Amino acid sequence: MDVALKGFGEVVKTVTLRVRRYDPEKESLPTYMEYKVPVQKGMTVLDGILYVKEHIDPSLSARYSCRMGICGSCGMIIDGKERLACQTQILELKKDLIKVDPMGNYKIVKDLVPDLSKLFRNHEAVKPYIVREEEKPTAEYLQTPEQREKYGMFTDCILCGACLSACPTSAADELYLGPQALAQAFRYISDSRDTGFYERLNVLDSKHGVWRCHFSGACSEVCPKGVDPALGIQLLKEVLTKNIFVKYKQVPSPVGPERKSVVETS
Ligand code: SF4
Ligand code: FES
Q: Which of 3-17, 84-98, 129-143 has the lowest mean pLDDT?
C-alpha cells in the first residue's frame, strides 16, 4: 500500500487540493493545479500532497521530514493561513476544495518549497546562543524556575518560518529581521545566564530591527507551536528602551563578575 493511505481505514470523502505550482527556472509565472484526493480519517494535508506525488503527479515539490510537527520543514499556506502541513487534518478544515500555497515573503525554490535562507540568516544575526563574558566557564550556570519562566515559551520555536511569512512588515521590508529572529533575541537577552545584550544591540537597534514592528500580531496568530513572537518583540522593545541610553551616552558596558543579565538589572 502507498505511504499516503497506509493504515488510515476507509475513504470518507474526496477533496480537491488546489496547489500552486511554480518552477522559477522554467516558468515566469505560477499556475494552480487541482488534484482530487481520497481522504481517510486522520489524513493530513501533507498526506494528501504525498498521495498526489505517488498517484497523480510526481513532479509536485514539497519539503517535509519528521511528519510530527517537530522539524519545522512543512510550513505552507493552507486554506489561507500559515500552517504545518503534517499537523493539519484535512477533515478538520471542513472544505471540499483546499487551496495550498507556499509560504509568503520568501523566494520560491519550487512549488511549495520556500527558500528559508533569509529566516536562518536573520536568526544567526541575533546570536541565538548564550553569550558570556567569561572565556572559560568554571562551573555550571544555575538558573531558578522563575528565571527560566521569563523566556520559556520562546524555546518552543522550531524555525518553521510561518511567522515571517505572515508578517506585513517583512512583506514591506526585505531586510527586516522578522518576528522569529526578534523573539529569539528576547529569548537570549532575557536569559539570566546571558550577558550578550550589547553585542546584539547594533542589529536590534537598526532601521531593519525591532522598531520596525508595528505590532500587527499576525506572527502570533499563525505560530503552530504556540509561541507569541509579537509579545517577545514588545518585551524586547521594553528592554531596549530601558537600556539603550548606554549606547548614545557612550557609557561603557558594565563588565565584571557582578554583571547580571539586562532583564534582571532593568
Ligand atoms: S516563532 Fe512560531 S511561527 Fe515563528 S518560526 Fe518559531 S515556531 Fe515557527
Ligand atoms: S514534517 Fe516536520 S514539522 Fe511537518
A: 3-17
